[in-house]
Description:
elongated, alpha+beta, four-stranded mixed β-sheet
Amino acid sequence: MLRKLLLLSVFCLIGLSAKAQLEEVIHHTFNPEDIPEIHLNLIEEYELLPWAGNQILTETYIELYDASPEILKFLIEEKARYEIVSSIQEGFLLLSSTDQDRAPIQFRGNTCSEFVRTKIYIPDSYQDNGEGLLIRVD
């Protein structure tokens, strides 16, 4: 009996000390219309993928460790930490991260690990010219 209680205690301690991983995916859609250039000003790592559509689609993958689900929800909904916004400026479309200076997340005295990656599906009528610049080719 004592052995079972000891094993149960050990498993409970392991479960309490395990690092929780939270994951979320955020989608955005942007219409480039007939704009000749698209400039990207994103803080997170991103990957450009051509596709046959006529809109820009983004999928932002968020992994957050050592935080509660409420913290992640707050960062997404209230702080718009992972939002991508668009604006038209002098003949080009600018896609940028709303939070350009992502301060480390603190929770219960610990710094949370955060991994953010974005996949950007761009119409195949645009060509990647590097350094966050896309040029319409058709």
